[in-house]
Amino acid sequence: MTAVNIGIPRRSPLPDVSGRPADPHLLDRFGRVATDLRVSVTEKCSLRCTYCMPEEGLPAIPRALLLTPAEIGRLVGIGARDLGVREVRFTGGEPLLRADLAEILAATRAAAPGLPMALTTNGVGLDKRLPALLDAGLTRVNISLDTVDREHFARLTRRDRLPAVLAGIEAAREAGLTPLKVNAVLMRETLDDAPDLLAWALDAGVQLRFIEQMPLDADGVWSRESLVDAAELLAVLGRRFELEEVGRDDPHAPAEEWRVRSRGATAPATATVGLIASVTRSFCAECDRTRVTAEGSVRSCLFGDDETPLAPLLRGGADDATIADAWRAAMWGKQAGHGMDEADFHRPKRSMGAIGG
Known about the structure:
Elements: E1 10-11, E2 26-27, E3 33-34, E4 36-40, H1 69-82, E5 87-91, H2 101-111, E6 117-121, H3 126-136, E7 140-144, H4 150-157, H5 162-174, E8 181-186, H6 194-204, E9 207-212, H7 230-238, E10 241-247, E11 256-262, E12 271-276, E13 289-292, E14 297-299, E15 306-309, H8 311-315, H9 320-332, H10 352-355
Parallel strand pairs: 1-15, 4-5, 4-13, 5-6, 6-7, 7-8, 8-9, 9-12
Antiparallel strand pairs: 2-3, 10-11, 11-12, 13-14, 14-15
Helix pairs in contact: 1-2, 1-9, 2-3, 3-5
């Protein structure tokens, strides 16, 4: 078994803020303002997707290092009240593996009343947890599903859990969680399944979004040469569907939208499919995200290894203003983009499962 390192990021307790204007928001040097907060709550996952997790899973983060529900609630409250955060999404790993996830949501709702709270999940067990999560204030979910072929699903995720994922999606539909988005990572081995997945999504009434695979896999086998890019996907889908480009309604939204209908259909196309071309059609210039890791560090970019730890401030008696200033400083140093087209590009030390989506 090969040992997997979740990565040791470079940590700066107080990044250089020279030249930063007196702006209370999460502003960076390139004029972007972060309003979308992603909070990872665990590195654990119930699946082992080849583009994310190693077969044996990631090394465990000691429980004492994980932020508590009260600490998460406090951080999100600071973000919403003092820094201009407009929504929060809880991620992992798989957030449903936090037994206290409902407590996290409840603490967040108490600290930031009215703030939309979303969840990114693989859906395994969602049908059983959903009532408590809704009671705690959950407003929306994104569910990961890369194929509806059970054999291919088991091979890609190393777990035969497709029925459990579909049960979670159905539970979210029945609960009225809309828009219900399903995310599929583009992989060479499941590319031919993409039309069937889209047909299933159209029948199910969910919004499907395909995502180009990024170099964030723990096994480190990603390569540009094996990437399934947006153009190739559109060609495959175009054999079965008519596609009309819509673009983005919101410049900060990562997904380009396409109206879609089956070839030969006469009714106007009303459904859409999304395409998040993170690698080949970078949207870094419009990025509005700020991330907090499960251990309580601000990570300004998925592809930047610099992290600013807020947990010592939370646990050391710092007031909210001090924590907010440290968060602003962390975001001021955000890099211009992921840099995958640069000759000196180096993939992050941490994989997606250790960072949070």
